[in-house]
Amino acid sequence: MVSKKIFLDSLNRECKPENHAYTRVITNYSQVSARYVVTDFYKNGRKKMTGCTLDRDILKKDGEFIYFFKNGSKEAVINFKDDHKEGKEINWYENQIKKSEKQNIWNPKTKTSQTLLLNFWNENKEQIVTDGNGEYEGTEGFTTQKGTIKDGLKQGIWQGTDTLNKVTFIEKYEKGVLISGTKTDENNISYSYPSKGKEVAKKSASNH
Fold it and tell me: Is pLDDT of 208 > 70?
């Protein structure tokens, strides 16, 4: 049974060993199998992610995946089915305070996914979303945002900042569906978008 080791850059693309940020090991690579165990490691040797893939050469997540912070503490447990999030998802802060409990729903017929935020705790251990309802305020990656969660979904006006793209935004949601939004960049230029991927340069009359 031979394993395969590959080197990945910071964007998880395969790269030369001298440029790597992570390494990936595919266990039982030499065998013909329905699933292969895949584990990513940080440069410090600690695990970054572990789970199973349906394809030994392309990462197709299936089953439970566990993610870790660089210090070795657990970051998330997420379930996948045929490379799509499905089922329960739990996230933690780096100090191991529980951050959130989510329910992911994947519809293979319509190829659509939906994530319900069931419970959320801020870094002060205060539960601000309970049983899918509450006033959310938090940061995921480069995005900080706040707004109302109703029945697990975004509802009403949401506002926030995206430090990666250097924009602020105000968005309106109805049962988790984006109705309208306005982004303002660092040059104070605003543009509105009726839906994701359909951005228009002018402001619509409905936006404030």
Answer: no
Q: Is residue 6 part of a domain?
A: no
The strand pair at 153-162 and 177-185 is best described as unpaired
Domain coverage including residue 161: 134-208
Give the mean pLDDT of the chain: 92
- The sign of the torsion formed by the CA atoms of 101, 161, 85, 9 equals negative
Is residue 13, in this structure, part of any structural domain at all? no
pLDDT by residue (tens digit) across 41-69?
Answer: 999 999 999 999 999 999 999 999 999 99
User: pTM of the entire structure?
Assistant: 0.85
CA-nearest of 150, 202, 200, 145 to 175 is 150
- Among 149, 47, 143, 61, smallest CA distance to 106 is for 61
Assess whether pLDDT exceeds 80 at residue 194. Answer: no
Q: Are 38 and 54 in contact (CB under 8 A)?
A: no
Burial class (CB in 10 A: 0-12, 13-18, 19+), 131: exposed
**Residue 192 forms part of a structural domain:** yes
| pLDDT surpasses 80 at 200 | no
Number of domains in the chain: 1
Q: How many other CB atoms are there within 10 angstroms of residue 102's CB atom?
A: 20
67 within domain boundaries: no
Q: Please state whether 185 falls in left (phi above 0), alpha (psi between -120 and 50) or beta.
A: beta
